[in-house]
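Write out the 3D structure for:
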Amino acid sequence: MKRNTIILLLFWIPGLAAGSGNFIPGNTGLTWENEMNLRPGDDDMITLSDNHDHSGGYGGIFFKGTSFKDQTLLITGLRGAWVVNRSFCLGIDLNGILPTTKYSGVDPVGLDQAILTGGYGGILLEPIVWSNKIVHLTFPISIGAGWLGYVEDWENNQYYYDGDLFDDDVFWYFEPGINVEINVARFFRAGVGISK
């Protein structure tokens, strides 16, 4: 029994000594030296084509308030983007005007009020600063096109509603902004911001 223990120790100790301090607990075959080579140093440039990139994505809903012809408009939207290296987002931005704001003097006859409706959407470009911090900044830029139209106020029309369109227009837009976001969890962020 003593001899078997000594033989076992003779085979086990050299292997332990050769590997002590080299192996990362919980990983098989990955040494500290290899792990350090996988991490970029302070002087290393991180690019999209190297092994250090991180790719992900997000989708979310948002609510905005703005004004049009001295009236408050409520806007809701959807936003989805591909996140590259936790520092830049490329995606789409879709916005729809909630049809709650009424305007007078739009009807050619001048008898009824009209409701503003429409939407706009386009490409989203969003740099992110300090994305790994609990509180961080983003700078979304949305570029695209949209449509606005005045339709008949269905609440004033007691007998029928045929959706008369009084006036409409198509437009291009450019909307830069700044957001303050909080990392609530790895899969959930909340934020507030302003845009123009």
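Residues 1-36 have pLDDT under 50 and may be disordered.
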